Amino acid sequence: MSERLRTDALHLGVIALLVVLFLTLPTYYAGNLSRIMVLAIYAIGYNLLFGYTGLLSLGHAMFFAAGMYGYGLTAQLAGWPALPAFALGILAGAALGLVVGALALRTAGVAFMIVTLMFAQSAYLTILYFGTWTRGDEGFVVPGVARVVLGIDLSGETERFVAALILFSLVLLVSGRLVRSRLGRTLVAIRENEERTRMLGYDATRLKLIAITVSAALSGLAGAAYALLFGYVGASFAAVPYSIFPLLWVLLGGAGTTVGPLIGVFFMFYLIDTASGITLAYMLIAGLALVLLTLFAPQGIAGLVRRRVRWLP
Amino acid sequence: MLEATGLRAAYGPVEVLHDVSLTARAGEITCLLGRNGAGKSSTLKAILGLLPPSRGTVTLDGAALHALPAHEIPKRGIGYVPQGRRLFRELTVAETIEVGLMTRGEGRETRDWVLDLFPRLRERLGQQAGTLSGGEQQMLATARALCLRPKVLLLDEPTEGLQPSMIDLIRDVTVRMRDEGYAILLVEQRMDAILDLADRAVFLETGRSVETVARADLTPQTLHRRLGV
């Protein structure tokens, strides 16, 4: 079986597994799957930049929030229907990625991390500053009419799951193809040795800008999907923790693997969920588990599997 | 023909190349010789635009290269095999060659050509570059540079850390490239590896090219006088 077929088969298997889980798990756990898939889209976007291109951003929450507010504000204030507002959310993420990328790529390493963090903080404060429209920390609920797509109300559990599954499947399959494409291989080459890649005639800065823009577009898509499916838009999604989460998800699941982001989100979601049922100091338990995992499996869960299954994409 | 004239370059405020001039002709191996810190690798980097020269010119067949961004220079016909190989460790051999081929849209013919030069790579196509032996990594680094079908090949210490059989192989390929009409600019510490290889040698001392000698004059006495070996 060719590498491409194996990769597609694995991804289709993952999608099938999600459907089986939704149909067989108790209601609470099945309901969580939609949220996990949307956050996994965010993590896939982050992984493209961090895992494949080697750029560590500490400000991705601004792209997630750009998608969320791009969709939410046009639906809330301008009364746009769901699909155009959703498309605008993705566009807002991509446009912000292009602008921030063009400026942040003048730096590298730690400076790049700090610059992206500062941009994200500026975005967060901007949301708070324009509280008249954004409703600041409190946020706002998306009008019901803006959650209807092609006559289907996405506020229902099953409809929400199907919509999240469609979006996640598309992103997983496309990202799987992307990382195996010429562009994807070149991004890995940049991650491995940027100077060498330039010496093969590649404009590394332009390629990194493409990676940031695509990553931001996917993050924007996730943000818009979150608002569309769960009906809430709030400034907390633009705050620092939402820039750190995707890094943790990707590290846990396996940076530079296509299924790692989903595994990371799944693992961390239930780690926090389970720990919070045991103690109020649940973050301590979660933190300890993360430290242990990082010590014993620094390449993440999928990275660990890849040691034995070398073709794992 | 690659020609560098009066090159000056600095790392930040520290100038490391003060006046370097050299010529690498088609069908010749030109060796860049000098003690540690003389500026050999820096000269290669200045030619490649990785260390942009503050003064001087670099031309290839009369076309200026020194004002171009670094990523444009390989497209004009300069291939570079860096010291220590610096491979894309997680890419397989096949993927590494593919990345090399894509820049200039080279296809199957070039791929077959480089794999014929290094048949062992053909047996390792699915293997990750980071897991190859030192000699195989050197072959892959050279193959990757040749994917661009360069007119000039810059080799920075290609035999460093290799076992004798691999050194012979790299030498054979270098000679073959020369015989096929490529211009080779070679930096090498191992005098035994290059003494009978060089058609011409340029001696560097503290960032200056001080002497260029033809093969006939590249004697142990000259090496002793210039390098103290």
Explain how this protein is built.
The complex is a heterodimer of chains A (313) and B (229). Chain A has 313 residues and is mainly α. Chain A starts with a helix and ends in a 5-residue tail after the last helix. Chain B has 229 residues and is α/β, with parallel strands linked by helices. Chain B has 2 domains: 154 residues, Rossmann fold (3-Layer(aba) Sandwich), CATH 3.40.50; 62 residues, no CATH class. In chain B, 32% of the residues lie in helices and 27% in strands. In chain B, the strands form 2 sheets. A 6-stranded mixed β-sheet of chain B has the order 6-7-8-3-9-10, with helices on both faces. Chain B has a 4-stranded antiparallel β-sheet with strand order 2-1-4-5, covered by helices on one side. In chain B, β4 and β5 form a beta hairpin. The radius of gyration of chain B is 17 Å and the shape is globular.
Radius of gyration of chain B: 17 Å
pLDDT < 50 stretches of chain B: none
Mean of all residue-level pLDDT scores of chain B? 89
CATH domain class of the largest domain in chain B = Alpha Beta
What overall geometry of chain B do the principal axes of the alpha carbons give? globular
CATH structural architecture of the largest domain in chain B: 3-Layer(aba) Sandwich
Largest interface: A-B, 19 and 30 residues
Please name the CATH topology of the largest domain in chain B: Rossmann fold
Quickly count the domains of chain B: 2
Return residue spans of chain A where pLDDT drops below 50 for at least 5 consecutive residues. Answer: none
Number of helices of chain B: 8
Shape by Cα distribution of chain A: globular
SSE string of chain B, helices as H and strands as E: EEEHEEEHHHHEHEHEEH
The oligomeric state of the chains shown is: heterodimer
Structural class of the helices, strands and pairings of chain B?
A: alpha/beta
